[in-house]
Amino acid sequence: MSVTFWAQYAWLPHVNGPVVERDVLISTVDGGRIAKVTPDSGPCPSGAVRLEGLLVPGQANAHSHAFHRALRGTVQVGSGTFWTWRDTMYKFACALDPDSYLALATAVYAEMALAGITAVGEFHYLHHAPGGGRYDDPNAMGEALIEAAARAGIRITLLDTCYLSSGFGTEPTKPQLRFSDGDADAWAVRADGLKPREHARIGAAVHSVRAVPADQLGTIAHWASMRRAPLHVHLSEQTAENDACLTAHGVTPTRLLADHGVLGPRTSAVHATHLTDEDIRLLADSSTTICMCPTTERDLADGIGPARRLASAGCPVSLGSDSHAVIDPFEEARALELNERLRTRTRGHWTANALLRAGSEDGHASLGWPEAGRIEVGALADFTVLALDSVRTAGPPARLGAETAVFAASAADVRHVVVGGRQVVRDGVHQLVPDVPAALRDSIAALSS
Question: From the candidates 160, 299, 322, 382, which is the catalytic residue?
Fold first, then answer.
């Protein structure tokens, strides 16, 4: 069915850069695409769906590990390192099966929808049963994630992840046996069994250079290239990874990926925190996208990556919530700028428009949804509406809507969410998952029982 929405204000593309327009009519057609956008249309006409607030493109969460949501709060007890955090994460990973993962991921993706996220890139490596045994359907865990996104009403790119070793030249540990297919050829055979559908697309991922032997990186890159699919990779999140790669191969992780054909315009490097000048040049010259996850990077004490240098060199930048310590795309966007301010002690490294684009258009492109992330004719009718009258957003004039969204709003200000022309969130209430907090509580408690 075609639907017409009336937005009080909308952040729209313009020849001189995006601007906030008022009284915007947006008509959709069957198939969930935008057929017409009419600014300054006057009062909301009869029959149109009224959307009070600021309408922006739906946000893309370009990097997610859905089961990490179960760690929230638990891993904040005491201190520790990234590596001790990982041990706790493995305990939850061992407790999941396809049914419990479906329940948890549905709740997590519903939380994302409430936060204004309309598409998620799920970096999925929890493939097999505990101990490495195979399910009757070898993709049962991935299919659970695809179904979870459908139940939560959002789009998903399942980034099926190759994860073969615990370190350079070392076998998987016991918890990691769930992740491994044995070798990259076996991974490719299993990944071939995953099929896209209307709300889901299939991509690939290299977990990291420490988890995939160098001589098998090309297999994954070739698989993605033949399908013109997105390819993601964790890159230089920890200095320990860089040091181990230099010891094993004599080059940085970025150089190793470049030498094996992994980098490129359909590739996204996640984190990219600890880079050399040559690494930055290699990433920029290959037009690789950078996915920054500021709330996780600060939660794990990873460090502040050179996002501004990478963007200035020519890398598109996207955003992800990664471990879901926080699910708030507007917090991720402003953290990109605020982190840079802390590093340089100067302000104004990113405009609000650029940060909104990172969270929408560039994020969707990194997930293989180039037709999403813009409010224009022909684009997918995926959008988010933020309240402009909350205690956080009240005050600024509407023309500063982008600045208000990025530097004042939070996920709590999301009022409506539309995906493919269907209203998934109305007045702050999820329309498909009746009680999201209860769904989260129950699915997480089931893992500890």
Answer: 322
